[in-house]
Write a structure and sequence with these properties.
The protein has four helices and four strands, in the order E-H-E-E-E-H-H-H. With about 120 residues, the protein is an alpha+beta fold. It has two domains: about 10-65, no CATH class; about 70-118, no CATH class. The protein starts with 13 loop residues before the first strand and ends with a helix. It comes from Tolypocladium ophioglossoides (strain CBS 100239) (Snaketongue truffleclub).
Amino acid sequence: MSARRPFRREDFDIAIICALPLEYDAVSYIFDEFWDEDGDHGLRLALLVGVCGAVPHSRDGEALLGDVVISKTIIQYDFSRRYPGKFIRKSTIEDNLGRPNRDIRNLAVIFETDRGLD
């Protein structure tokens, strides 16, 4: 199956999001063309790419340059209520952002398999 090349911004179904200029610079080298403004879109997948500064560290493993970190959830820290002396999240992760669609969940499961890791 060959992917067709998008001709307009409306033809994209995947978005790549970078938080830092350093990350944007690295990712931007893979593109042939840029669109300066958002358009109407039919996005199905958004990839948050970066330097993994928030990856949890463990004693038995480490994240190295070139490693890929895949998460099943996104924690939205700003979806909370501020009270005097405390900050409380409104509810669970699932309630805040919703559950990913079936295609995304299936893709995440494939990445967990030995074959998907290759």
